[in-house]
Give the backbone structure.
Amino acid sequence: MRELNSETQPNSSAKECNLIFAAREQKLGQWISYLLSYGVLTASAIVCIGGIWYLIRHGAEPVDYHVFRGEPDTFRSPAGIVAAVLAGRARGLIQLGLLLLIATPIARVILSLVTFLRWRDLTYTVITLLVLTGLIYSFIGAYV
């Protein structure tokens, strides 16, 4: 292999640097793709199992659509959902799957933040922190 020097290739270090950045970004994209795919598949499987379990237990019960009944308080907080799952309630398992589905994009933002911190990329770190702050505020704002 021929040695590259600054006389034969004046932009060789810039090209190498661009290749390194491109490879890094491609790897991040791949990790994000895996995270989103497995997060959605896992959440879907949990919801499906919970739905089947719910239908096995309550599928033959008569349905009354004349009266609207909202979600019980148990299913309105993450702690309540976990408690319902631990108590063996099928609706709790469905809610857990939905909670995981909501958490998947948040995990993507956290993965991006950690990656940008490791790369010491201040611009993307600040932008990602702002996005994460907005997401956290939107969830915490519901309970405050």
The CA atoms of residues 110 and 122 lie 15 Å apart.
